[in-house]
TrEMBL record, chain A:
InterPro entries: ABC_transp_permease
Complexes and interactors: The complex is composed of two ATP-binding proteins (LsrA), two transmembrane proteins (LsrC and LsrD) and a solute-binding protein (LsrB).
Main location: membrane
Species of origin: Devosia rhodophyticola
Annotated keywords: Cell inner membrane, Cell membrane, Membrane, Transmembrane, Transmembrane helix, Transport
Role: Part of the ABC transporter complex LsrABCD involved in autoinducer 2 (AI-2) import. Probably responsible for the translocation of the substrate across the membrane.
Matching Pfam families: BPD_transp_2
Record keyword Protease present: no
Stretches that traverse the bilayer: 12-33, 45-64, 71-88, 94-113, 125-146, 166-188, 214-236, 242-262, 269-291, 297-315
Membrane topology category: Multi-pass membrane protein
Protein location: Cell membrane
Protein name from the UniProt record: Autoinducer 2 import system permease protein LsrC
PANTHER family for the chain: ABC TRANSPORTER PERMEASE PROTEIN YPHD-RELATED-RELATED, AUTOINDUCER 2 IMPORT SYSTEM PERMEASE PROTEIN LSRC
Automatic annotation (TrEMBL), chain B:
Cross-referenced CDD domains: ABC_Carb_Monos_I, ABC_Carb_Monos_II
Pfam families in UniProt: ABC_tran
Keywords: ATP-binding, Cell membrane, Membrane, Nucleotide-binding, Repeat, Sugar transport, Translocase, Transport
InterPro entries: AAA+_ATPase, ABC_carbohydrate_import_ATPase, ABC_transporter-like_ATP-bd, ABC_transporter-like_CS, P-loop_NTPase
GO molecular function, one term: ATP binding
Family membership: Belongs to the ABC transporter superfamily.
Domain of life: Bacteria
Protein name according to UniProt: Sugar ABC transporter ATP-binding protein
Species this chain originates from: Devosia rhodophyticola
TrEMBL record, chain C:
Keyword terms, alphabetized: Cell inner membrane, Cell membrane, Membrane, Transmembrane, Transmembrane helix, Transport
Function: Part of the ABC transporter complex LsrABCD involved in autoinducer 2 (AI-2) import. Probably responsible for the translocation of the substrate across the membrane.
Protein name in the entry: Autoinducer 2 import system permease protein LsrD
Membrane topology: Multi-pass membrane protein
Transmembrane region(s): 30-50, 62-82, 88-116, 123-147, 182-206, 227-249, 255-275, 282-303, 309-328
Subunit relationships: The complex is composed of two ATP-binding proteins (LsrA), two transmembrane proteins (LsrC and LsrD) and a solute-binding protein (LsrB).
Subcellular location(s) per record: Cell membrane
InterPro entries for this protein: ABC_transp_permease
């Protein structure tokens, strides 16, 4: 018996180790072919690619752990981004921080709406958020009048967040992303409410029997995912210096889901760690940067995302099947 | 034993949708005793236990805890009152660690409070030490054996200082060694003054472990006895004591060639080395307790979940049955046990349900002929006397008996030569049951081979030419009708803890 | 493995049959039809164009590719599965077609290759669902990204065009005043309705969606049916991709981006039950026209195309809720 538990737990732990090894291997292989990959400049590019995915990935991870999916984060990102952009443009006297808070709150509100629809009508979250993906994108066009917020309106200080660094040349937004990851880690691993999310996803039927309030908890998870997508919208404005209703955040959900499932978060709920997700995001960021350096068209990106999602599903399934089989065998051999 | 009972149940009754499954049970449970609840499947013992644990609420009756009247409205209340029900396959959160599973649901700290990992794991370790079991509390539940999961549940009960621990057939999935460990712990808990309710089919275990035993039959409490004063025979008599119902078996069916023969059928974790045959015109019963593996064997033969090894012969020729359609082509039919899930298409019409097995008949040229479909359905309705408002109404609106008739009708249209009927009369009115017995007899008289799985011994004794008995995944008896009595069947069906198979039924 | 408590002893043998008017009227297709009539009346008041059947037919050519795929998607959803990848399959099969044609392959062969691509993509989805037993809803999210990515690899970010003149503009080709794609849609509708309503396969699709376990026990070859449906999705998507290529006279990797929403919307709006077992081709057929009128109506009423996204998203959610409510009422 202990052999099986040992095997399973090493496999679970190995997931993170495995991604770490892949990150190192990727760096070495790509570096060998294209030495430019192993320069500080490339490292900076990779580092800058990470925050956008990482912050939203923290939210998506919580949603997946709770056995749901949120497809609407790309549109939520755009909505928050456009709200902040419009406030920057039309209300230049309002302190930037107020606009940022407003943007995050908008993201939270849209996430809250997702959670309410999913729990109130007991609908599959994937279909609901497919609907709100469109609905929220429409709202983006509506509030913006389909007009882009041009670079000159984005506050310098916000753009500098992506360029300047308080320490060791690490840009502010990168630091922010890792702070968020740390906070998420603390919440999920050391706060009772965070553990309840795992319980909910691990066994939704038993959760209420152990006094877990499923409806508010689910709504909370979607709200957090929305708020984090909203924050990502701010980062987006900082990184790219403009907000476009038709471009910003389109297809973003697939990138994030791919990163999260590479990180070992199970689509079946209950499984996933912040460390794994962080590593998944880093790996994905590296691949994105490595492709053009290797002369591979960036068009391969989506192929990689899609393949990664399918492969992660297959791995997850085979791990589950194997553990079930091992248990049955152990039982009849005992 | 203390004077005032820990739990005093008075007049506990429970109805499900108008059917009384438990009536007027009075029972005192003493502090510091291990009390067995015994009875056949459906006797009411589990319902009673679930009422104590707050899973069900009694329709009538009162409960008192230490002399104080209490209402146990839900499992959380029960937990607070110190009553824990341990399911045979415990509810757990497989992805979370053992230690976390132990504390989940405790409400002694704030939602935003910190998880005291070190304390929690130490506490869990202490509990495991206290129980004398070696379980790594930092490992996820997923990898634990059922026995270890039960231990975690027991530890949970200890952590919340439960006074009454109810174990619902805990030993069925355990190996003998695991059973020993469980017993040791149960005795220790009793010696600490806790009360344990032990639900089991294994009389040897009851003899070995329990102080008192209460026997249920047909939803009523028959007797409470001191275990030392009675023998297994006494208990079995109390369990089956009802008079044999008057049932007419269609005799005179010619028993012919072997129609179905299985040999060495095995599926790890479920059943092992099953060999038997059924002849044309013969009704062979398959008896056994719930979980003995009878349904698994039936599912394997029919190709729903084919066995890992073993052979099946139909009419003397070896056959491969990889999926149910193969079985149907060979002239097999299977009325499954779980009618609601595996039998009916609840929201589809009676018509569509009845013709589901005969697509070729209703659509001779690829297109469904309404005329043929109507005729086939009408024929079934008449032949089996299915009572309904309209053949186009959803089958879910019919009573259980009429749904079952429709399922049987579905198979009669395939003109099967071998019928496997798994608990065909469960949840069906007495009157309709008699109709079913009639039909089964007629089917045999027509020269069909019938394998009848049933938990109702009188039913088997009245209908069958031969009765096979399974226990823990193995065939333990093959009784001719003349030799079969309720006692002989029960003896073969009750697992023997001492020498029971290496392989325990799941 | 707890003891079975005897299931309820019935007080009656069966519920009374529902009155005929209820059977006929309380069903989601009726809701769809009522909405269609309502939308038509409102639209006609907004603009005289709508009284002109020709205008509606022309407008419908922008959506009819989705409508065709939605018909097959209806069968998939009735069988208890879902496929979110058809828009990506459209794009990839169209890109295969265009790239092969550009590489010098005869156009007929390129079209066949496109259809074969559709078969392969559908087969891949089907195998992941049926053989590896993965949930279709998530699998097809993965393959939608994969197929769209492959389309991008194949076509880059350029448009591939310069097809022969006879290939382009199928939406302007009329038979009896009706654009060819619409005729294709109507023919497929009738064919699928016939299959669903009158053949054994159709019957079994409902049975599989109602209870997969009961279907297996009744000897229905569940896996074969589901695999077939996923392949049919691939083929339909490929046809949709070719029709779009002809209509636009060019192909880009981002063809039909977000189209899965519209297709799912048509099916849901047509009253097919998201959890399987219920639904009809008629419903999806009506919903397709409803969507044409809503979308065109909003355009005519000068509502920005972008605000239509809101309407589509909201409609999807509302239609699922409404359909669930209607089925809950009639289920008892």
């Amino acid at each position: 018996m202990s052999l099986i538990t040992k095997f399973l737990s090493t496999l679970l732990h190995r997931r993170e180790a495995g991604i770490a090894v892949m990150i190192v291997l990727l760096a070495l292989v790509v570096g060998a072919i294209q030495p430019r990959f192993l320069t500080l400049e490339t490292l900076r590019i990779i580092a800058l690619a990470i925050p956008l995915i990482l912050i939203a990935a923290m939210g998506q991870m919580m949603v997946l752990v709770a056995r749901h999916v949120d497809l609407s984060i790309g549109s939520i990102l755009a909505f928050s981004s456009i709200i902040a952009g419009i406030m920057f443009r039309d209300l230049p006297d309002v302190p930037i921080i107020i606009s940022i808070v407003a943007a995050i709150a908008c993201g939270g509100a849209l996430g809250f709406a997702n959670g309410v629809i999913v729990t109130l009508f007991r609908l599959p979250s994937i279909i609901v958020t497919l609907g709100t993906l469109s609905l929220y994108r429409g709202l983006v066009f509506l509030v913006s009048g389909a007009r882009q917020v041009d670079p000159q309106y984005i506050p310098r200080s916000l753009i500098e967040m992506s360029q300047t660094s308080p320490i060791f040349g690490i840009p502010w937004i990168v630091i922010l992303a890792f702070v968020i990851a740390l906070l998420t880690y603390f919440f999920l691993d050391h706060v009772r409410l965070g553990r309840q999310i795992y319980a909910l996803g691990s066994n939704p039927v038993a959760a209420p029997l152990r006094g877990i309030k499923v409806v508010p908890l689910t709504i909370l998870v979607f709200t957090m995912s929305g708020a984090l997508a909203g924050l990502t919208g701010i980062i987006y404005a900082s990184r790219f210096g403009y907000v476009n209703p038709g471009i910003t955040g389109v297809g973003f959900e697939f990138t994030v889901i791919a990163a999260v499932v590479i990180g070992g978060v199970s689509i079946n709920g209950g499984v996933g760690t912040v460390l794994g997700t962080v590593l998944g995001v880093i790996l994905l960021g590296m691949v994105n940067v490595a492709l053009p350096l290797l002369g591979v068209s960036a068009f391969w990106q989506d192929v990689i995302y899609g393949a990664v999602i399918v492969i992660a599903l297959l791995i997850d399934k085979s791990v589950r099947d194997r553990s079930a089989r091992a248990l049955a065998a152990a039982r009849s051999a005992a | 034993m203390a004077d005032a009972p820990l739990i005093a149940a008075r007049g506990i009754s429970k109805q499900f949708a108008g059917v009384e499954v438990l009536s007027d049970v009075d029972l005192d449970l003493m502090a510091g005793e291990i009390h067995a609840l015994l009875g056949e499947n459906g006797a009411g013992k589990s319902t009673f236990a679930k009422i104590l644990a707050g899973v069900h609420r009694p329709t009538r009756g009162t409960l008192a805890l230490n002399g104080q009247p209490v209402e146990v409205n839900n499992p959380t209340t029960a937990q607070r009152l110190g009553i824990t029900l341990i399911h045979q396959e415990p509810i757990s959160f497989p992805d979370m660690s053992v230690a976390e599973n132990l504390v989940l649901g405790r409400t002694d700290s704030a939602l935003l409070g910190r998880v005291p990992w070190a304390e929690m794991e130490q506490g869990a370790k202490d509990l495991m030490t206290q129980l004398g079991v070696r379980i790594d509390v930092t490992k996820p539940m997923r990898g634990l054996s059922i026995a270890d999961q039960q231990m975690v549940e027991i530890a949970r009960a200890l952590a919340s200082d439960s006074r009454l621990i109810i174990m619902d057939e805990p030993t069925a999935p355990l190996t003998p060694k695991e059973v020993d460990t469980l017993f040791k712990i149960a005795r220790r808990l009793r010696d600490e003054g806790r009360t344990i309710i032990f639900i089991s089919h294994r009389l040897e275990e009851v003899q070995a472990l329990c102080d008192r035993a209460t026997i249920f039959r047909d939803g009523a409490l028959v007797d409470t006895v001191d275990v030392v004063d009675v023998t297994d025979e006494d208990i079995i008599k109390l369990m089956i004591g009802r008079p044999l119902r008057e049932l007419i078996h269609k005799t005179g069916s010619e028993i012919g060639e072997v129609a179905l023969e299985v040999s060495g059928l095995s599926q790890p974790g479920m059943f092992k080395n099953i060999s038997f045959s059924v002849r044309k015109g013969e009704i062979v019963g398959l008896a056994g307790l719930v979980g003995a593996g009878r349904t698994d064997v039936a599912r394997a033969i029919f190709g729903v979940a084919p066995a890992q090894s073993g052979t099946i012969n139909v009419n003397g020729a070896p056959v491969t049955i990889a999926e149910p359609s193969d079985a149907i082509d060979l002239g097999l039919a299977f009325v499954p046990e779980d009618r609601a899930v595996a039998g009916i298409f609840k929201t589809l019409s009676v018509e569509h349900n009845i013709t589901a097995t005969v697509p070729g008949k209703i659509a001779p040229r690829g297109f469904i002929s309404r005329g043929i479909e109507k005729a086939l359905t009408a024929q079934s309705v008449k032949q089996l006397r299915i009572r309904l408002a309209s053949v186009r109404q959803p089958i879910g609106e019919l009573s259980g008996g009429n749904q079952q008739k429709a399922i049987l009708a579905r198979w009669l249209h395939t003109d099967p030569q071998i019928l496997i009927l798994d608990e065909p009369t469960r949840g069906i009115d007495i009157g309709v049951k008699a109709e079913f017995y009639d039909m089964i007899g007629k089917l045999a008289a027509d020269g069909r081979a019938i394998l009848l799985i049933s938990s109702e011994l009188p039913e088997l004794l009245a209908l069958c030419d031969r009765i096979l008995v399974m226990a823990e995944g193995e065939l333990t008896a093959d009784l001719l009708r003349a030799d079969a009595t309720q006692e002989t069947i029960m003896h073969a069906a009750v697992p023997k803890t001492g020498n029971h198979a290496q392989e325990s039924a799941a | 493995m707890t003891m079975q408590t005897e299931t309820a002893k019935p007080t009656r043998d069966s519920a009374d049959a529902r009155p005929m008017w209820q059977v006929v009227l309380v069903r989601p297709e009726v809701m769809t039809f009522a909405l269609l009539v309502g939308a038509f009346i409102i639209a006609s008041n907004l603009s005289p164009f709508f009284s002109d059947a020709q205008f509606i037919l022309e407008s419908s050519t922008y959506y009819v590719e989705y409508s065709i795929i939605a018909l097959v998607l209806t069968l998939v959803i009735i069988s208890g599965e879902i496929d979110l990848s058809p828009a990506a399959m459209m794009a990839l099969s169209a890109c295969v077609f265009a790239a092969l044609y550009q590489a010098g392959l005869p156009i007929g062969l390129a079209m066949i290759a496109s259809l074969a691509t559709g078969v392969l993509m559908g087969l891949f989805n089907g195998i992941l669902v049926v053989v590896f037993k993965l949930p279709s809803i998530i699998v097809t999210i993965g393959t939608l990204t994969l197929y769209r990515g492959l389309a991008q690899v194949l076509a880059g970010d350029r448009s591939i065009g310069k097809f022969p003149q006879w290939f382009n503009g199928i939406d302007y080709r009329l038979i009896l005043d009706v654009p060819v794609p619409v005729i294709v849609f109507v023919i497929i509708s009738v064919a699928l309705a016939a299959i669903l309503g009158t053949t054994v396969i159709g019957r079994q699709i409902y049975q599989v969606g109602t209870s997969e376990i009961a279907s297996i026990h009744a000897g229905i070859r569940v896996r074969r049916i589901k695999l077939g449906l996923f392949v049919a999705m691939g083929v339909a998507s490929s046809i949709g991709g070719l029709l779009t290529a002809s209509r636009l006279a060019s192909v880009r990797y981002d063809m039909a981006t977000g189209g899965e929403l519209q297709m799912v919307l048509m099916v849901m709006l047509g009253g097919t039950y998201i959890f399987g077992g219920r639904g009809s081709i008629l419903g999806t057929f009506l919903a397709s026209w409803l969507l044409v009128i809503i979308a065109t109506g909003m355009t005519v009423a000068n509502i920005a195309i972008t605000a239509q996204l809101i309407v589509m998203g909201a409609l999807l959610i509302i239609s699922i809720i409404a359909t669930n409510a209607i089925y809950a009422r009639t289920q008892r």
